[in-house]
Amino acid sequence: MPQRVVITRRIPPPGVERLRAAGLLPEEFPSDDPPSRAELLSRVRDVAAIVAMLSERIDAELLDAAGAGLRVVSNFAVGIDNVDLAACRARNVRVTNTPGVLTEATADIAWALILAAARRVAEGDRLVRAGEWRGWTPTQLLGLEMNGATLGVIGAGRIGTAVARRSAGFGMRVLYSHPRDNPELDGPLAARRVELDVLLRESDVVSLHIPMRPENRHLLSRERLSLLKPTAILINTARGAVVDEAALVDLLRAGHIAAAGLDVYEREPALAPGLAELPNVVLVPHLGSATTATRGRMSAMVAENVCAVLTGREPPNPVV
Ligand code: DGY
């Protein structure tokens, strides 16, 4: 009897093919929509592996519903804030993720948001589509010039570094906040590591690249957000809950922050009240890793991690 691997959403083919080739029985949820909790609890029963999406809560209840045969939770994401690691450890369930393969794609979406928010692309698009554009004028939709502006990167790990690297082409000064120096930024970009509050006060564009750990919840609190310049732009492609989203809405509405570009939200897919009505925000639906190539690599990677654990090997991307 082949071991069952439940995949909680449709994923690109490479992963499913790899699991089949290994003699496993992949059971893909036949939808792009998140399953209900009840469906999830019932479909994980007696599986050997769960390929989970970042929107699924993998907690004690779900692990117990799967039963004692569950050996691995292979998260289809680099972020693992949806997984209760202690509950997995307590049940001897391995946890894996997909680091590295989505770095460049996520850095690209951060830059898409930086440029869109700085140059008011979405506002301009809405104006043109609404038939309200009455022709070129010297004062229309003036934005922030990248050349000479300061980019503040919060979290200079893989993705933060890739975002900072791209700023060289725009002639920006780079500040970063991180627990230690990052030689990839210090040398080639002459970047400066500074305290978070200094970064918030001095940057024109602030981009978040830290994982969602309990200590990072509302790291950008109302007080910290208030340190931003009134001309500053905030970009979040990390996790929604690192920013107090309600405070962000208030400060954007009051003009204490010029604009924001968001890929992630505190209570996805719900938005903080008022956010979608603000003209000075660019909102995309958690697209960080959404390129055909990257999602294909993530698919192969989740399968490789499952195959390794189920054949008694160390998985390539262990978390637990
Ligand atoms: C991740 O992998 O954590 C990303 O948020 C997915 O795009």
Give a verbal description of the structure.
This protein is an alpha/beta fold. It folds into 2 domains: 4-101 and 292-310, Rossmann fold; 103-283, NAD(P)-binding Rossmann-like Domain (Rossmann fold), CATH 3.40.50.720. It is built from 12 helices and 12 strands. A 7-stranded parallel sheet has the order 8-7-6-9-10-11-12, sandwiched between helices. Helix 4 links the parallel strand 4 (72-75) and strand 5 (94-96). Helix 1 (13-21) packs parallel to helix 12 (292-310), helix 2 runs parallel beside helix 3 and helix 5 (103-118) crosses helix 7. The longest helix has 19 residues, at 292-310. The two termini are 27 Å apart. The mean pLDDT is 98. The protein binds (2R)-2,3-dihydroxypropanoic acid (DGY). (2R)-2,3-dihydroxypropanoic acid binds next to loops.
Strand content of the residues, in percent? 5-15%
Major beta-sheet overview? 7 strands, parallel
Query: Helicity level, as a percent range?
Result: 25-40%
Regions with little confidence, pLDDT below 50 for 5+ residues:
none
Tell me which ligands are bound: (2R)-2,3-dihydroxypropanoic acid
CATH fold-level name of the largest domain: Rossmann fold
Global geometry:
elongated
Q: What number is the mean pLDDT? A: 98
Give the topology string: H per helix, E per strand. Answer: EHEHEHEHEHHEHEHEHEHEHEEH
Topology:
Elements: E1 4-7, H1 13-21, E2 25-28, H2 37-43, E3 49-52, H3 60-66, E4 72-75, H4 85-90, E5 94-96, H5 103-118, H6 121-129, E6 150-154, H7 158-166, E7 173-177, H8 183-189, E8 192-193, H9 196-202, E9 205-208, H10 222-225, E10 233-236, H11 245-253, E11 259-262, E12 281-283, H12 292-310
Parallel strand pairs: 1-2, 1-3, 3-4, 4-5, 6-7, 6-9, 7-8, 9-10, 10-11, 11-12
Helix pairs in contact: 1-12, 2-3, 5-7
The structure holds (2R)-2,3-dihydroxypropanoic acid.
